Amino acid sequence: MKIRLISGSCYVAILVAFYLMKIFIHDLCFDALLYFCSLVGAFEMLRATKEKTTKPQRVVCFAFATLCIPACALCQQFFGNGMQIVALCLFFAVLATLALLVADHENTSLESIGVSLLSLVYPTLFLSVLVIANHANAPQGLENFAFNSDLLVLFIFVISPFADSFAYLFGRFLRKYFPRPFAPTISPNKTAVGAIGGLVGGLIGATVLYFSYNAVVGSFENMALWLPVYLLVGLLSAGATELGDLFESAIKRKVEIKDMGKIMPGHGGVLDRIDGTMFATILVYATYIVVQWIA
């Protein structure tokens, strides 16, 4: 438990340091952290599924992880077309993966193609959405509310930990009273009451974020409108965090491993730490797009 606490504290310290560099130096500083996560995460994913893919397929997947994030970050920063670059990189990576069925037919199976395509999406494609969110500007008319990339990153990296922590607390202290399992075939130790705790944690995290963030850089104007928006994002992001956690547990169960890596003692690998965060990213950025449309 002590090692897990120390490792988790180091992770939080690194996040805070890179977030402060994003605020006071440049958005690209936080992209550098995401790039590191993409490379290590892709390595962990490809190592975990090594028996189900071929070497050429793994080369394609890692090349995608190596090129996609920096191309996305630079194009989004200077030209505002990061999403198009990601789509283009993904197109060529998928094309190369499918072409291996012809070029390396004897060693390539339909299962290996499916696993390779999954490895393109998870984690690199998910992290590319986070890169784009890291460069989001406040929609026109909402500048006073600081509804920008700073807030989106906080949504992702505040709500997910709150959801994880409250899921753990509810599961640990209430399990003996409410032992009903949540996903017994994927993660037998998870309980329904723990899942409820995760949603409660998401709401609490969103509330804390609303009052703390707006006290510093935002505005409490139209609280009756914005507080429910924060709470909705918190609830949906918490649900997405739990889905991401179960998704990775399902992958690990399929490949019969306990952890995706060992870079974070007590937690596992990078993917073990950011699995729910990546899924929460999709919900947070989708909310940003909806708000942008409405505004």
Task: Tell me what you see in this structure.
- It is a single chain.
- This protein has 295 residues and is mostly helical.
- It has nine helices and two strands.
- A hairpin with a 3-residue loop joins strand 1 and strand 2.
- The chain is globular.
Question: Into which percent range does the helicity of residues fall?
Answer: over 70%
Global structural class: mainly alpha
Shape: globular
- Strand fraction: under 5%
Multimeric state of these chains? single chain
For the largest beta-sheet, the strand count, sense and barrel status come to: 2 strands, antiparallel
Please give the radius of gyration in angstroms: 20 Å
**What's the β-strand tally?**
2
Topology pattern, helix = H, strand = E: HHHHHHEEHHH
Give the low-confidence spans: none
> Whole-Å distance between the termini?
46 Å
Task: Draw up the topology in text.
Elements: H1 2-24, H2 27-48, H3 55-78, H4 82-103, H5 110-133, H6 149-174, E1 181-183, E2 187-191, H7 192-216, H8 223-255, H9 270-294
Antiparallel strand pairs: 1-2
Helix pairs in contact: 1-2, 2-3, 2-5, 3-4, 3-5, 4-5, 5-9, 6-7, 6-8, 6-9, 7-8, 8-9
Key terms:
295 residues, mainly alpha
Could you provide a short overview of the structure?
The protein has about 300 residues and is an all-alpha fold. It has helices at about 1-25, 25-50, 55-80, 80-105, 110-135, 150-175, 190-215, 225-255, 270-295; strands at about 180-185, 185-190. A hairpin with a 3-residue loop joins strand 1 and strand 2.
